[in-house]
Design a protein that fits this description.
Blueprint (H helix, E strand, L loop, with lengths): L26 H8 L4 E5 L6 H13 L8 E5 L2 H17 L4 E8 L6 E7 L4 E6 L11 E4 L8 H8 L9 E5 L7 H4 L1
Parallel strand pairs: 1-7, 2-5, 2-6, 6-7
Antiparallel strand pairs: 3-4, 4-5
Helix pairs in contact: 1-2, 2-3
Length: about 190
């Protein structure tokens, strides 16, 4: 077994690249969270913690007393939508952010559903499976996970982008899907 730092001695995984010091976020995750661009994008590989750090970023923003906008996080499927709100719940608890898990809720008159986490300031993080129509008429922050895997990424972007017009930010995250994909063009 290669040399592991003391903090990782009992880690059962096979990771070979372990930070020398115990850390909450890795440097690239920290840069992602601290990036306050109106629209930010990242090409990622699988299971590198960008959805995880995006959850932390969303909760950090919602935990502020002066937070005013909701967040809409769209994952490629129901399982990853649920996983995202589980991350958010954990961070809300760690930050003592006064959040309440409202469960799986109908969020509009069309019957669209989302996993909803509501904060004491009445803002919400809504995590939903891939359905671009849900963004119509919404406002706030947007997170688009596994963007290049969508059947119509250009259509998703066209519907989701106006959500940030009145004070939100957008995070677009995906693995690479070739040069012809709209994600690559962005």
């Amino acid at each position: 077994m290669p040399h592991r730092p003391e903090h990782a001695r009992n880690f059962p995984g096979a990771a070979k690249n372990i930070p020398a010091e115990d850390t909450f976020l890795l440097p690239y995750q920290t840069r992602w969270v601290l990036d306050r661009a109106l629209i930010k994008m990242m090409v990622k590989s699988r299971r590198v913690g960008i959805s995880y750090s995006t959850a932390y970023d969303f909760v950090r923003e919602h935990a502020q007393d002066n937070a005013t906008v909701d967040s809409w996080f769209s994952s490629r499927d129901e399982l990853t939508a649920r996983e995202f709100v589980i991350y958010c719940r954990g961070f809300a608890t760690a930050l003592d952010a006064g959040a309440r898990d409202l469960g799986f809720q109908v969020i509009d008159e069309k019957g669209n559903n989302a996993h909803v986490l509501q904060f004491s300031n009445r803002t919400r993080i809504n995590s939903l499976a891939s359905n671009p129509d849900v963004f119509a008429g919404k406002g706030g922050n947007v997170g688009l996970d596994e963007f290049a895997l969508r059947p119509d990424p250009r259509g998703v972007f066209a519907i989701a982008q106006p959500v940030i017009d009145w004070g939100g930010r957008m995070a677009i995250i995906s693995t690479h899907r070739g040069t012809a994909n709209f994600f690559n063009k962005l």
